[in-house]
Amino acid sequence: MKSCFMFGHRDTPPETQQKIISAVERLYLNHGVTEFYVGGYGAFDRLAGAAVKDAKRRFPEIMLYLLISYHPAVRPVALPEGYDGSFYPPLENVPQRYAIVKANQYMVNTCDAVICYVRRPGNSKVLLTRAQNRGMKEPLIIENIGM
Description:
The chain is 37% helix and 20% strand. It is α/β, with parallel strands linked by helices. The mean pLDDT is 88.
């Protein structure tokens, strides 16, 4: 199964939702991506989760996972409605203050695709650059809807 990590600015405008929906559908239809991972911290994450839920109605084989940055035993998280599960990357030895950054880096390093909203410098731009520079046998599929 191919996977996609979704990230973007916490103040992503609501009108980007249709672009996210289109990107999800393109990755599914053109590249066979069926697993989508999204965090739970800002506007982009809410829009991305809603976009994947929308796509799941048309393509039931699509799965939506909540990326959790802190060990669930330390910070339990309720799974939002419409999510198929959660995923905690192997971060047991990472200090909590770096947990979100390291979880995001892990996902960029391991997923087959990313959908992102990047329009300015910041953590999302750093992740996009990391994705663009990732050395792999197969190219990473990047959909930056912020351009």
